[in-house]
């Protein structure tokens, strides 16, 4: 099963490989700029302001400010390019998958539609495709970028003061563990919420598709009540998610500020012989605040990847069943029809021995019209 999932993932990623590489490289360039900016401030504070000077040779505070502004502008331009390219890539995936699914539905034979509800197909084409789009937009181009960002920040912090860095990094396991626990709780809530959402989507698709029958049998009130119950159930299923997300944000802020307090505390009281310049204190505080966000995002992305893989398997479980497809190009073209149609002792079932026709015999003479009639709502494909 894992090998099959991996093959499907490669099959889905291959057409998007070139934009993924380009976007990832641009994202890494933005990361480099994010690491350099605080270091420029540190240079200004320690090498210029503390010394009471404005320039060293041809390098002045103005030149450093110009470099800083250039990095900011280039970073925003690259961020705009990445956002646009990622959105286009995500929409391209949506376009491709939805067209493939819809084409499959159109060419699929009667047995396929007999065993697959229209509501299920609706969810595959809408909700499951959106999960994969989220994977492309929010995960695939940021995952490696976040890992590189963490490594770069840690290396810079170690080069500035390894003692303070090692003490601050003691918070990282706590941050990771907290993120994992909260994200796992959120995942369970999301799984239940997704099941409710799927039921709601299937109900809506089938109700709208069968609205004529609902009106014929005067079932509007019952369907309205069923829709209201499902909507309330879905609303209630989403409330705990908001709570866990708020708790996660609050915990990240607590750990972030604990890191800041730890750096200031070590600097003031010179524990372990730590003596930091003002610029170094500033840059360490900036880096420790930056490092928690990618850690938390990586943990969350693992859950997003799992959801995307589940949705991907559901979609390919349909697309890879080629045996359900009909070939409309095959067959013999009949220019002129002569003779009669005779059914003699015909048995028919879509699956196994669930017989739709049992030992049926009849003859249709040339020019004769025959109608198959059954009770309204009796589902004439059943054994009635």
Secondary structure layout:
Layout: H1 2-13, H2 17-49, E1 55-56, E2 59-60, H3 61-107, H4 110-115, H5 118-139, H6 143-160, H7 162-168, H8 171-209, H9 211-216, H10 220-269, H11 278-319, E3 341-349, E4 355-364
Antiparallel strand pairs: 1-2, 3-4
Name the CATH superfamily classification of the largest domain: ABC transporter type 1, transmembrane domain
Tell me the structural class: mainly alpha
The appropriate CATH architecture of the largest domain is: Up-down Bundle
Number of domains: 2
Q: Which regions are unreliable across 5 or more consecutive residues at pLDDT < 50?
A: none
Mean pLDDT value: 82
Strand line-up across the major sheet: 1-2
Radius of gyration: 31 Å
Number of distinct helices: 11
CATH topology of the largest domain: ABC transporter transmembrane region fold
Helix-strand pattern: HHEEHHHHHHHHHEE
CATH class of the largest domain reads Mainly Alpha
Describe the structure.
This protein has 384 residues and is mainly alpha-helical. It folds into two domains: 2-324, ABC transporter type 1, transmembrane domain (ABC transporter transmembrane region fold); 339-384, no CATH class. The chain contains eleven helices and four strands, in the order ααββαααααααααββ. It has a two-stranded antiparallel sheet with strand order 1-2. Strands 3-4 form a two-stranded antiparallel sheet. A hairpin with a 5-residue loop joins strand 3 (341-349) and strand 4.
């Amino acid at each position: 099963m894992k090998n099959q999932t991996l093959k499907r993932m490669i099959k889905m990623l291959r057409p998007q490989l070139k934009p993924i590489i380009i976007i990832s490289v641009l994202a890494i360039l933005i990361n480099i700029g994010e690491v350099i900016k605080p270091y420029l401030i540190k240079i200004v504070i320690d090498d210029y302001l503390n010394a009471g000077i404005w320039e060293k040779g041809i390098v002045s505070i103005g030149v450093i400010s110009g470099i800083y502004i250039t990095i900011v502008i280039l970073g925003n331009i690259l961020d705009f390019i990445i956002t646009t390219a990622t959105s286009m890539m995500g929409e391209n995936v949506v376009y491709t998958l939805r067209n493939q699914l819809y084409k499959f539905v159109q060419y699929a034979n009667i047995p396929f539609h007999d065993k697959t509800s229209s509501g299920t197909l609706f969810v595959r084409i809408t909700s499951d495709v959106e999960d994969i789009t989220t994977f492309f937009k929010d995960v695939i181009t940021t995952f490696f970028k976040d890992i590189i960002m963490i490594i770069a920040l840690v290396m810079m912090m170690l080069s500035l003061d390894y003692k303070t860095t090692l003490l601050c990094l003691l918070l990282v396991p706590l941050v990771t563990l907290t993120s994992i626990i909260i994200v796992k709780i959120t995942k369970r809530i999301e799984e239940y919420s997704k099941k409710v959402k799927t039921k709601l989507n299937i109900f809506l698709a089938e109700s709208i598709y069968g609205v004529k029958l609902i009106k014929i049998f005067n079932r509007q009130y019952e369907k309205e009540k069923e829709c209201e119950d499902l909507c309330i159930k879905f609303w209630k299923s989403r409330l705990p998610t908001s709570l866990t997300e708020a708790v996660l944000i609050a915990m990240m802020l607590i750990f972030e500020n604990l890191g800041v307090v730890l750096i200031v505390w070590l600097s003031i009281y010179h524990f372990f012989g730590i003596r930091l310049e003002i610029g170094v204190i500033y840059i360490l505080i900036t880096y420790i605040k930056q490092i928690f966000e990618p850690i938390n995002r990586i943990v969350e992305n693992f859950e997003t990847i799992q959801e995307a893989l589940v949705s991907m398997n559901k979609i390919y479980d349909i697309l890879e069943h080629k045996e359900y497809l009909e070939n409309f190009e095959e067959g013999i073209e009949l220019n002129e029809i002569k003779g009669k149609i005779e059914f003699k002792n015909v048995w028919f079932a879509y699956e196994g021995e669930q017989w739709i026709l049992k030992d049926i015999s009849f003859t249709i003479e040339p020019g004769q019209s025959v109608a198959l009639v059954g009770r309204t709502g009796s589902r004439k494909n059943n054994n009635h």
